[in-house]
Amino acid sequence: MPSVEDNVVVLSNLKGDKELKRLSLPGSRKCNLLEVSPNGKYAVAALEASGYGDRAIRLAVTDCNLTSILQVVTKTVEDGFGLNDIGVSNDGSLIAAVGGKGGGWVLVADVQSRKILWERTIADAREFNNVVFSPDGEIVYASEPGRSVYAFEVATEKLVKKFEMDKYKTPPNNPQTISCIALSADGRLLAAATAPASRVCIWDTKKETKALVINLGQFDTGDISFSPDSSLLATVSLGGSSIKIWKLR
Asked: What's 167's DSSP letter?
């Protein structure tokens, strides 16, 4: 379980009561975002790059033995740019970042070559707020705050599918928002939690059809996750005060 203290990534056991290792962040002032791969083998960090002021982000990953942090790419950004989420593939070979400025922005980089493979902006999305790789690393999924999840082919950067949940009526000051997304371990199911309706929409990525909608009740969802065999879905309330386990048909 990774966490951040100043300019150090701390690795601990799942309970969080035993520190296993500390990895320093050389050449960086602090870590802004930290995420793990779906299989838990790698971690990716978005760092503030020293010497660039506030106009650059540095993306770095841990090695497979969790002994060091490899700095992959540094991206200079413009004023008003917002970085919202990062992700790493299960084999640690690819990293992604999403955010927004003038549209939904997504970047994919290769770890071995330490180069940006591609980046693009989708004008009809205000921004992207979540990102996750498919288990095989061939597709990267990015969600907008509204009601759509975009699927990009990593090899070609082509937008191959747009998954869209139903639109529902909301108060003017509380618009429909996708709070988090998750993929099943086999890549077959894509789930997205939405607020303020407190529901999860699940699609079959192979058939590209909506498989299920779960009404969660009266709480906003902070995170969702599939069980390894894809038969269960866990939903966590915002703030972590409530966890529910759902059996999927």
From this structure: P
pLDDT digits (tens, 9 = 90+) for 71-113: 899 888 777 788 999 999 999 999 999 999 889 999 999 999 9
Give the separation between CA 87 and CA 154, rounded to whole angstroms.
13
User: b/e for 188-225, b at 16 or more Cβ within 10 A?
Assistant: bbbbbbbbebbbbbbbebeeeeebeebebeebbbbbbe
pTM for the full predicted model: 0.87
- Residue 97's nearest CA partner among 136, 55, 49, 45 is 45
What's the CA angle centered on 132, arms 127 and 138, to 5 degrees?
115
Both tokens assigned to 74: 């540094």
Strand, helix or coil at 248?
Answer: coil
10 Å Cβ neighbour count for 63? Answer: 13
Alpha-carbon span 96 to 10, nearest angstrom: 22
Q: Order of strands across the sheet with 139-143? A: 130-133, 139-143, 148-153, 159-164
Read off the pLDDT of residues 180-225 as tens digits, 9 standing for 90 and up.
999 999 999 999 998 888 889 999 998 878 888 888 876 777 789 9
HSE, CB side, 13 Å, CA atoms: give it for residue 57. 24
Contact indicator for 125, 150 with CB cutoff of 8 Å: yes
Distances from the Cα of 16 to the Cαs of 2, 31, 68, 227, in angstroms? 9, 19, 20, 21
Q: Is 65 helix (H, G, I), strand (E, B) or coil?
A: coil
Residue 142 in 3-state DSSP?
strand
